[in-house]
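Ticket #499: bound-state structure for zinc ion.
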Amino acid sequence: MGRMGSSRVRLASAAILRKAGPVRIFNTLTRKKEVIKPLKDKHLGMYACGLTVYDFAHIGNLRTYVFEDVLRRVLEFNGFRVKHVMNITDVGHLTSDADTGEDKMEIGARRERKTAWEISEHYTELFLEDAAKLNIERPQVIPKATQHINDMIKLIRLLEKKGYTYVTDDGVYFDTSKSKGYGKLARLEPGGMLPGARVEVNPQKKSPSDFALWKFSPKGTKRDMEWDSPWGAGFPGWHLECSAMSMKYLGKTFDIHCGGIDHIPIHHTNEIAQSEGATGRKFVNYWVHAAHLIVDGRRMAKSSGNFYTLSTITDKGYDPMSLRFFYLQAHYRRELNFTYEGLDAARNAMNSINEFVRRLGEYDGGKDNVGVRALTLKTGARFTKAMNDDLNTPEALAVLFRFITHVNRLMDERRMSRANARMVLELMLVLDRVLGLNLKRSLEKEALPEQAEKLVKEREQARKAGDYVRADAIRNRLRDEFNIVLEDTPEGVKWKKRS
Ligand code: AMP
Ligand code: ZN
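RESOLUTION: The complex was predicted; output attached.
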């Protein structure tokens, strides 16, 4: 990389950040965009509700995890040190979020004739692989609910001591009437209900919004996953799991808690009630929620045949980065409709960014262009400003694409220097720390298989000797056997994999 280019962008990143202003994020608690201010120095604790590992993650879940990854990257880009904790929900998430129905893990186990433990291990591994393919930075801590049962029991004991609990035939419940400000996150009506919401009535619950902290194993049965407790054998409530794990790793009060919007009225509402009940302190400063992904205009569901996973898409030949780009084109607080036409458009856009990056790396230039230098820094500042404004990814990408079009034209007309190109390249790589589109991959020269390389050389010799029949035969062989197409350019023979 050109010295001049790299030092300029590096020196300029402080200026880029200064011009971009502070990071503002929409806080569900206050319904306002707020400047992110850490509890401690430049450190931020961030908790994300993890997947319930009874099945594959679908591309809706993955949208939320990519959003959380972008949030973390934007914060880190702005100089914060983020401790990212994402749990694995491997017990206790019932089919209804409101404590009725079956444990999803048991459903998965029955479906596949395995134990809940095997199901958990299998889908946790696949989920973390999907996350890595989508270039999601691995959270520093990935706690499993089943490994924190003691922490959960301690938390229930504390709530019991403070008078927040009561016991019914099927479990230990949290009494929401004792909780000050219950429902403030979702702005629930008194009594804890969203207007118009109906819930199944458990006659032993004092109020419909009360929720289970601990559920007893059904009488006469033995679950795959159950533990002894002071109240009887059973398993923890799903909301309690997140309170126990988040406070264990991030403290009684921490900075950021995120998840999908479906978690606002029940799961996160109940996390707040029990955590604040137990500690007497504010639980979380910023609540950040992503809107849902829908498919072909409908909610994704197995029964509708529109349940897509990352492999559904990669099996059709799409690169995971095309899906990541597809997500980024929409603002995270807007519902996003997945269609293959939309994914095709994202793939085209991804190809053009990758081609741009590759071209910048190879460009050998014309005259130095002062305008390019100024525009590069301005683009960096505009891009960052958009990202810092509640992660406005569509705006940031629009800024980037206008810039790409402009610089491509300058390169067509050779109106910029090699050093200019290196500087633009460096900006692209710096901004990719936020986007996470793995742009540096386009700079890596893929090696040809050894035999193919031999054939390319033989063809060159044949061409030089004027034996075009043989040259064409070799070209066809490369295409059919190695899926490689050759292109004769003024700079010599180039090859690429056929897509
Ligand atoms: P779960 O496995 O149900 O606990 O969900 C894991 C994460 O995915 C949570 O943050 C959910 O809010 C989120 N989520 C669930 N469905 C969707 C969807 N269709 N689009 C976006 N996020 C979703
Ligand atoms: Zn949670």
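RESOLUTION NOTES: The two ends are 29 Å apart (CA to CA).
TICKET STATUS: resolved
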